[in-house]
C-alpha cells in the first residue's frame, strides 16, 4: 500500500500530460472536423475531393507515423521547414488525425437528417448557414453522441503513443517505474487510472445522451 | 393565351404561374402549367397521384427549380424565361425575400423535433426576421390559441398527434406573416379521424381571406372551402373552374373519370 502511494505522484504527473494532450486535441479536432465535414458535403467538388483525400491519408496511415513525421521530418520538408517542440508536435498530429475521424462522424450525422428539415427551414426563409446552425447541427449532436463517445475513449488510450517523442505521459511514467523497481504494480495502477478516465467519459456522454433524449 | 395576359394586366395577382415546365430526368412532370391566383382566393388542386400537382406547388416557392416558364409573386418576378426559353431565377437574396411571402405546410409536417411547440413557432421570426423573443411571444401564443394548442406550447413535437403536429406547422408558417399559404397534401399523412381538426383550421384561415393554394385529396374540403378547383393529370392542368360548377358539371372527360373514381 505504501508502495502504491509512493508511485501515485509520478503517475499523477503522467496523467496530467495525458489529460492535457486529450483535452487540447478535442478542442482543436472537433471544430476542425466539423469544418472538414461541411466542406466534404458542400457543392464545391474540388474542395470536397481534397477533404476526401485528406481523410484517406489521415485514416490510412498510423497515427504514430504521422507524429514521427511531424516531429522529425517536417523540419526538412522544403517550403515548410517548421521545427516543432515535442509536445506541440504531438498535439498537431493528434488534432489532424482525429479531425479526420470526427469529420466522418459529423458527415454521417449531417446526412442522416431528413430532407424535410431543410425544406421546412427553407420555406420559412432560413439561409443555409441559419439552417445548419439552428436546425440541422443541434439535431446532429444527438445522433453523433454514441460514435463520439467511442472515439474519445479511443483518444484517451491513443495518447499513450506520445512515448515515441519521449514525453512522460501516464503509461511512460508507469513503465519507467516498472523498469526501476522490477515490479508490475505501476502497470496495474496505470490501468486503474485509464479506467477512471474512461469511466468519467462514459458517464459524461451518458448524461449528454439523456439530456438530448427529451425530444424523442 | 390572351386570357392570361388580361388577368395579369388588371392587377398583379398573388400568384402568376405561366407555362411551367419541369422534368426529372427523362420524365416530364410538368408540361406547361399555367395558373393565376387572385387575392383571397382559395384554390384546391386535385388529381391522381403522379399528376404533378405537388411538384407544381413546390415549384412556386423554389423547393423545385423549373426548367421553363414564368413565376410572378405579387407582381415580383421570381423566374422568367431567357431568350433561349430556359427559366432564369432572380438573385438569391431577392429570391428568398419573395419566397418568404409564401408559407408552406407539408404532408409530413417537417416540424423541428429538437424544439418545443412554441420554439417551433418563434424560431423563424427570431432567426430570419431578427425579431426579439419578447416581441414575438404574444403573437406566437395567439397563433397557438387559434389552432387550439396553447396548452401544448412546451411539448416536443414527438408528443403530439399527427393532427396536432399539422396545426403547429400551420401556426409556424403563419408566424412569418405570409400573404399566401401553400398546402401540400396537408391531411394525407393523418389518420382519418384527425383530418377534421386540420381542415377546420384551414377553413378558418380561408374565412379570414388568406390566399391559399391547396393540393389535396379531400373532395369535401375542395367542395366546401375552395373558391376554385383545379384538376391536373399527366403534368397538365386539365380544368379550372369555380368549385360548385366543377363538381356539379365537370367539363373534361378526364375530370369526370377522376371524379367518378373518387366516389
Essential attributes:
A: mainly alpha; MetI-like fold; flat; B: 263 residues; alpha/beta; six-stranded mixed β-sheet; five-stranded antiparallel β-sheet; 26% strand; globular
How would you describe this protein?
The complex is a heterodimer of chains A (216) and B (263). Chain A is an all-alpha fold and 216 residues long. Chain A has a single domain, classed as MetI-like fold, CATH 1.10.3720.10. In chain A, 80% of the residues lie in helices and 0% in strands. Chain A is built from 8 helices and no strands. Chain A has helices at 2-40, 45-60, 63-73, 86-111, 115-123, 128-158, 170-181, 185-212. In chain A, helix 2 packs across helix 4 (86-111). The model of chain A has no long low-confidence stretch (mean pLDDT 94). By secondary structure, chain B is an alpha/beta fold. Chain B has a domain at 108-178. Helices cover 38% and strands 26% of the residues of chain B. Chain B contains 10 helices and 11 strands. Chain B has a 6-stranded mixed beta sheet with strand order 7-8-9-3-10-11, with helices on both faces. The longest helix of chain B is centred in the last third of the chain and has 16 residues, at 192-207. Chain B is globular. Mean pLDDT of chain B is 93; it is low at 4-9. Classes of the chains: A mainly alpha (216), B alpha/beta (263). The interface between A and B is medium-sized, with 21 and 29 residues. Chain A: One of its GO terms (cellular component) is ATP-binding cassette (ABC) transporter complex.
Q: How much strand content do the residues of chain A show?
A: under 5%
**Largest interface: pair, residues per side:** A-B, 21 and 29 residues
* Helix-and-strand structural type of chain B: alpha/beta
CATH topology descriptor of chain A: MetI-like fold
Biggest sheet strand line-up of chain B: 7-8-9-3-10-11
Mean pLDDT of chain B: 93
* Radius of gyration of chain B, in angstroms, nearest whole number: 18 Å
CATH superfamily of chain A: MetI-like
- What's the order of the H and E elements of chain B? HEEEHEEEHEHHHEHEHEEHH
Q: What is the mean predicted local confidence, pLDDT of chain A?
A: 94
**Low-confidence segments of chain A, ≥5 residues, pLDDT <50?**
none
Main sheet properties of chain B: 6 strands, mixed
Straight-line N-to-C gap of chain A: 49 Å
Oligomeric form = heterodimer
**Which percent bin holds the helix content of chain B?**
25-40%
The geometry of chain B reads as: globular
What CATH first level of chain A would be assigned?
Mainly Alpha
